């Protein structure tokens, strides 16, 4: 079995329902953006649609326009906030492809020339650092 139905008990479903906290960067009617707790680079942000799906393949196509509008906004703000040279945007579907949380999400990763990203889903970051990084991106969104 390579996939199954959406399970609302996944960690991002819990974040969306306010059952567990996150370092929020941006929210609108259709999307939420928050810091990845195991960032592969400073400013690593996740963007999720509020409408549930496991990933890209079972998503209602209607979610993609608002989702990628938020990805674009957050990518620009994270790039500016961390004075990055570029920004990587990526998304995994099913465990075989590297997915570990089964609610559709897009990674936004500021990248600097010559700096390799840290390991995917590696060590937990200091919550105070994540809070400060979220604040930097929020400030860039408002600029
Ligand atoms: P995936 O491997 O599914 O593409 O990415 C899941 C991401 O979620 C990983 O980068 C991981 O660090 C992050 N993550 C896992 N658990 C939590 C959590 O409880 N809160 C937040 N904000 N991120 C999480």
- What composes the largest sheet? 5 strands, antiparallel
Outline the low-pLDDT stretches.
none
**How many strand segments?**
5
Question: Nearest-angstrom radius of gyration?
Answer: 14 Å
Number of domains: 1
Structural class determined from secondary elements? alpha+beta
Protein name: HIT domain-containing protein
Pfam families: HIT
Organism: Methylobacterium crusticola
InterPro entries: HINT (IPR039384), Histidine_triad_HIT (IPR001310), HIT-like (IPR011146), HIT-like_sf (IPR036265)
What's this model, at a glance?
Helices cover 28% and strands 17% of the residues. The protein has 143 residues and is α+β, with helices and mostly antiparallel strands.
